[in-house]
Amino acid sequence: MSPGSRMRLRGMVRKESLQILRDPSSIAIAFVLPVVLLFLFGYGVSLDARDIPVGLVVEQPDAATQSLVAAFRRSRYFRPRTFGSIQRAERALAARQIDGIVWLRNDFARRLLAGGEAPIAVRVNGVDANQAHLTEGYLQGVWLGWLQRYAAAAGHPLAIPVRIEHRVWFNAALISRFFLVPGLVAIIMTLIGSLLTAMVIAREWERGTMEAMMVTPLHIREVLAGKLIPYFVLGMGGMAFTVALAVWQFDVPLRGSLWLLFLSGALFMLVALGMGLLISIVSRNQFVAGQIAIVVTFLPAFILSGFIFDIGSMPAPIQLITHLVPARYFVAILQTLFLAGDLPRVVIPNLLALLVMGGIFAALVRRKAHKRLE
Fold first, then answer.
1. How far apart are CA 98 and CA 55, in angstroms?
2. pLDDT for 128-155, tens place per residue?
3. SS3 assignment for 179-211
4. pTM, whole model, 2 decimals?
5. In this structure, are 364 and 269 located in the same domain?
6. Which of 153, 185, 225, 235 has the fewest CB atoms inside 10 Å of its own CB, making it the most exposed?
């Protein structure tokens, strides 16, 4: 790069940096919005099932039924309420006051002591299918645990032909925050990279300063680089701030390499900047550019990246569409580095996918960007 080119690029970077500093919304999106989203998803949004309201109907209380009721009260997953009749419990279930009913009929203790089957009636609210499956699984877990303790107290082992030993890898505590917060880094960087950059060229056209820029000795490459470098620094600063909050405020483990995390973040940031710059060049209007950036970049990153919704559970055509979403690859890298560590079999293919997408967007930006009015 010639001295003149370096000087022009330095001047362009300084101009855009001053523009960012004078625009409070840019600083807010880079540093205030991550705090809001992290606290919202870290504390307000949870995929964990805790304190599930469940109704207990005991038609004939005795030692066995009271022992089972006590097992439900000791469980951290349930917040039990006792009802005198199944009709009252059903009305509470219909009113969404409880999410399930455990019904112990009046012959429960007699059939249990006789050595036969002592069935328990369980009714679960199936409006939320995911919550219903979790509630059903936790109910079975409490029931099986009580059966084992009851058999041990009676002096005979519980005959279970198959015993399942659970081993949860990477997130042994099953805390959904450890899954959500790393993926949130990709959402925040998408906002910083795509939404802010989508305005840079469109703003010049709206303010009428693009024509003045065209008569300067600036080459189009210098214009693009001068506009991207400040936002790249801003995005990486936002990422560092977000990662620090995730580790120190929300206690999310970071088991992978910090250098690999920031390498993948820098690559994803370039992809996001490329998408935003392409939108800005094509639209030439800040409002239109902002709407396109939200629809094309933010919403797919939020819904189709695996940030919240499992990609493997989506229909096959939607799974194919997710391959076009850059955030999908970055979310996979983030969740791997945070929870599992440096796994080359996961990280390298996703890095290569981001590298390919970055090259595609760079080529499209270079093709569409010209120093002429049409």
1. 6
2. 777 788 888 888 888 888 877 877 776 6
3. HHHHHHHHHHHHHHHHHHHCCHHHHHHHHCCHH
4. 0.80
5. yes
6. 153
Q: Do 88 and 233 reside in the same domain of the chain?
A: no
Q: Which residues pair with 124 in a beta bridge?
A: 100
Distance from C-alpha of 200 to C-alpha of 230, rounded to nearest angstrom:
11
Q: Cβ atoms within 10 A of the Cβ of 369, count?
A: 16
Question: Do 56 and 26 reside in the same domain of the chain?
Answer: no
Report the 10 Å Cβ neighbour count for 322: 18
Query: Looking at the domain assignment, is residue 160 inside a domain?
Result: no
- Nearest-CA neighbor of 234 among 5, 8, 33? 33
Same domain? For 57 and 91 the reply is: yes
38 and 184 in a single domain? The answer is: yes
In 3D, which of 177, 134, 165, 167 has the Cα closest to residue 339? 177
Q: What is each CA distance from 218 to 1, 5, 13, 199, 373, in whole angstroms?
A: 13, 8, 12, 20, 15
* pLDDT, tens digit (0-9, with 9 covering 90-100), for 13-28: 887 788 777 877 777 7
Same domain (yes/no): 89, 227: no
Per DSSP, 297 falls in state I
Output the DSSP codes for 103-160: EE-TTHHHHHHTTS----EEEE--SSHHHHHHHHHHHHHHHHHHHHHHHHHHTS----
pLDDT tens digits along 90-118: 899 888 888 889 988 887 777 776 665 66
Same domain for 7 and 70, yes or no, is no
Per DSSP, helices labelled H in the chain are: 3-21, 24-27, 33-39, 63-74, 86-94, 108-113, 129-154, 176-190, 196-197, 200-207, 210-214, 220-248, 258-283, 286-293, 299-303, 316-322, 326-339, 344-368
Torsion angle of alpha carbons 252, 254, 258, 261, nearest 10°? -70
Q: Residue 164 to residues 38, 61, 119: CA-CA distances in angstroms? A: 36, 32, 22
Q: Under a CB-based contact definition with an 8 Å cutoff, are residues 341 and 255 in contact?
A: yes
Give the range of the structural domain holding residue 181, as residue numbers without chain letter: 3-45+175-368
First and final CA of the chain: distance in angstroms? 29
Q: Which CATH number does the domain housing residue 60 bear? A: 3.40.1710.10
Report the alpha-carbon distance of residue 118 to residue 110 in Å, rounded. 8
Q: How many domains does the chain have?
A: 2
Closest CA to 142 of 150, 132, 153, 130: 150
Q: Note whether residue 165 is domain-resident.
A: no
